[in-house]
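Entry 14. Ran structure prediction on the chain below.
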Amino acid sequence: MRAYSPSNWKHTGVVLLCLLPGLGLIILLIGTVISMAVAQSVGYFNFSGPSEFSLIYWQKQLASPFLHRSVLYSAKISLLSSLISVGLAYMFAMWLRRPFPGSTVLGGLLKAPMMVPGLVAAFLLLNVIAFHGFVNEFLLWTNIISKPLRMQNDSFGTAVIFLQVWKQMPFALLVLIGPVQSIHNEIFDAARDLGASAWTRFRKIVLPLTLTAMQAALILVFIRAAGDFSFQVIVGPREVSSMAQYMYTVQRLYGEWNEAAVVAVVLMTMSLTGALLLAAVSQFLVTGRRR
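Output, structure tokens:
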């Protein structure tokens, strides 16, 4: 094993000092928020009672069926949204890998949803899928259906997943398109000459060479979807809440700040666990089978 020389330690120290202003501030802010949530979940910083250590808030929420349903629902929405978003992002990244007339404009249009606020997008979709929205009115006008279909606030959360994919796919595309475009054409040409199909080339070449970017996209989309509030409020199902919506309900309607902090800690734990599982499973599926 190579030992670190004084010059190497000096170089490392310089790098850390350069990173400290930005990275240190990020760690400070994130650490403060997380520590405050954890402390409040065990009874400290209590706005409506004595501030002392207590696990009663955890006991109440862990026994609540509403929390269990919110965790399962948010995990489902986040998982499906991340998988679909990254899958579509790969498809568009492969399509845009080689420039063609209009590819720059098309790439810009695909990234346009990143500029639209989530609440605005939810209301726009509401006009499309509402009971008397554009889709139902068109289907009624063409006599395809005899009465409007209920697409808004469906129990599965299809509208929420659609909005999440619409909003998150451009972000995943932004993460993936650089690594995909960096793969040399000669590699694809050699694989094609050896008889590899399009799916084999994607599975054996693209996925291994863009694994890190894929993991980053999956993790970021999963975390962003897990904390969704606006999409769920506008077009989500009424019989179940997302974690963010349930946390708001506990705090706003019932005034239970400490129990809301418990929900926040559970949400952060679910996001971290889901992100790590996605990274581990994708690592195994891409590299584990080739050993």
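The first helix runs from residue 6 to 41. Will compare against last week's run tomorrow.
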